[in-house]
Amino acid sequence: MNKYAVFLRGVNVGGVKVLMKDLIHLLQEGGFSDIKTLLASGNVVLTSEISDPLIIQNRCNELLRQYYQREIPTLVFTEAEIEDLARPFALSLPEPATAHHGYLTLCNSARDANELGQVIQGVAVPRNFLVTGRTVQWIASKGTSTTDPVAKVVQAQAKHRILTTRNHNTLVKVAKIFH
What we know:
Radius of gyration: 16 Å
Number of strands: 8
Mean pLDDT: 92
Low-confidence stretches: none
Largest sheet: 4 strands, antiparallel
């Protein structure tokens, strides 16, 4: 059996309400097992006999489309990818570290992550970020995760590509669910 993390984009904000208990039921009906959710923002860990994450992603997208009658994009990461992302954050948090958060913008492909990194590089205020695989890691002061210049770039890019942002602490918690 293969374990995956599924991240729903844009749920429980802006009028797109997905109850986690409904999501669990929907995914069970769709043939997935050992389904666990974390927080109400669309973080799911599940098990499947299917070994291709893209098939899992397409299946989840179709289940959500049919049930909610609207597009709710997902991003699927393997257990190995999540373990990698849950390691200590790759960028050093500025002092005081307790006043900052590390974020990972999860992308549909490495190409999307690289292109997002190129756009972030063009931000007027220089920002420290790192592109790793299908993610872009960046830092924001607490309370600015939606107003930070990088966050604004990510929000604008989300109109053109499938991506979603999670706090590094969330990825650590998702990794713990696998065990």
